[in-house]
Amino acid sequence: MTGFPLLLDVSARRVVVVGGGTVATRRVRALHKAGAQVLVVAPSIAAELVALDVACERREFTAHDLDGAWLAVACTDNPAVNAAVVAAAEQRQVFCVRSDAAPGGSARIPAALRRDDLTVAVSGGDDPLRAMALRDAIAVALDLGELPSRPARPATHGGSVALVGGGPGDPELITVLGRRLVASADVVVVDRLAPRTLLDDLPDSVEVIDCGKSPHRQNLSQEDINAVLIARALAGKRVVRLKGGDPFIFGRGGEEYLACVAAGVPVRVVPGISSALAGPAAARIPLTHRGVSADFTVVSGHLDPGRPAESGIDWPGLAAGAGTLVLLMSMDRLDLIAGELIAHGRPAATPSAVVHRATLEGQRVVRAPLAELAAAVARAGVGAPAVIVIGEVVDILEPPASTS
Ligand code: SAH
């Protein structure tokens, strides 16, 4: 069938689905979502389908079920019944999809994909697997920004800010949603530790604002960043604030969120894989492990551990516990922190590791007992950015005292 591609407005229109199994459930879910007034007819109807809250009649199909219908879907596992549905539809000039033998029906359901107001429908010459494969490939390309999905004319939408967690650094470790928002942004405000290679593919028209070149030299203050997010959004731009890891873990994302809300700018938050989780995983260190550790604590070490009042961190308490410790921003004070933990009861022999540039080119892992970690790191010449892991889990999957 060559066919004539068409998008149907089924809202509040009667659509009759004959069949009550998994195929019917899938079809009914999509029709219901599109607003159709669905009637399901089948002697037995799956609980999942009943739960969709559409009209269900548990009985055999009769031709009159199609009276007044705009569309019929025959998806029973009985070819004779499906054929009868097709025949009844034909008589009433109602289009009919037949799922067991597509050429038998007068309509096809394409493999479809929706992104915002965009619909892509693929029909594969009655080969649904081929259509689905192409649909999935288009979905990936769209989400990666490889297809021109942005409107050709200037958008009429209002401006907005998305606080996007970029993950630990490997550009493949951002979420699909984050990737898509970056690909369709007008402005990207980016951090030093965010997956910056994602920006290489952006069109020249996208404004990229760099927030920080090095850990100790910020290009822009937090107030500057908040102000630029708000100014661009109020000018009608789609602004992506691309941050390393998760936006709400030591990323000052909360402050940016509050600033946007106070300025009346719509703001959304897209979680990311924090380096606190990705760093250990990249070094094959499970933060919890049955029988070894049932909890972990993520701590920032950027303030002096000798002055708990300043940092608000209970180092003696953390030292006394048995859980895994994950330290961010701690490389400058590694020996102080290790000393503090040992002084308050963590065994000096506790397996520990430093994961430098996790998931990035040049990733390095240094393992040593807690008491020797700072010296081992200095010998290896490893600095920030790094995640430090302290606890018995460090040696569970990998041999101790190795450097890679
Ligand atoms: N919001 C980020 C953390 C920002 S604080 C997140 O959720 O990951 C910056 C600290 O994160 C660095 O000092 C370092 O401790 C850690 N970090 C970020 N990216 C890292 C990476 N690729 N490898 C190792 N540590 C990293």
Quick take:
The protein has 404 residues and is of the alpha/beta class. Helices cover 28% and strands 22% of the residues.
Molecular structure report:
The protein is an alpha/beta fold and 404 residues long. It has four domains: 14-109, NAD(P)-binding Rossmann-like Domain (Rossmann fold, 3-Layer(aba) Sandwich); 110-143; 160-273, Cobalt-precorrin-4 Transmethylase, domain 1 (3-Layer(aba) Sandwich), CATH 3.40.1010; 276-395, Methyltransferase, Cobalt-precorrin-4 Transmethylase, Domain 2. The protein is 28% helix and 22% strand. The chain is built from twelve helices and 19 strands. The strands form five sheets. A five-stranded parallel beta sheet has the order 3-2-1-4-5, sandwiched between helices. Strands 10-9-13-8-14 form a five-stranded parallel beta sheet, sandwiched between helices. α6 (222-234) crosses α7. The chain is elongated and about 85 Å long. The model has no long low-confidence stretch (mean pLDDT 92). It binds S-adenosyl-L-homocysteine. The site of S-adenosyl-L-homocysteine has 25 residues, from α8 and β19.
